[in-house]
Task: structure prediction
Amino acid sequence: MIDHDEARRALQERQATLREELSAGSSATKTVKLDQSRVGRLSRMDALQAQAMANASARHRDHELRRIAAALRRLDDGEYGDCDECGEAIARARLLVDPAASLCVACAEIQESS
Ligand SMILES: [Zn+2]
Result:
């Protein structure tokens, strides 16, 4: 069983980093838009590609932030560390790698393959 204070700290740190990256990312997306008016076709494609990548990572960060928020809620509810699917304890090593994990290894594998 992972230490809850430790998990909370790790989650909050990750949350702060993601929020910073999200706000930095949104200003990068704006810059791309401004540049498009004065660049050629090739650069415009680069710009669009960069923008698509920025949007994709923003979506990824958004998703991560939701997982972290859910994990923090589980900490508050005393359900942290239990698998959402089967209720078994999630392996400590798994939580150390991903403190926001909500499924045990077995259930995560079933979900990924379906
Ligand atoms: Zn499970």
Summary: The helical segments are 4-35, 41-77, 92-97, 105-113. Residues 41-77 form the longest helix (37 residues). The chain has a mean pLDDT of 88.
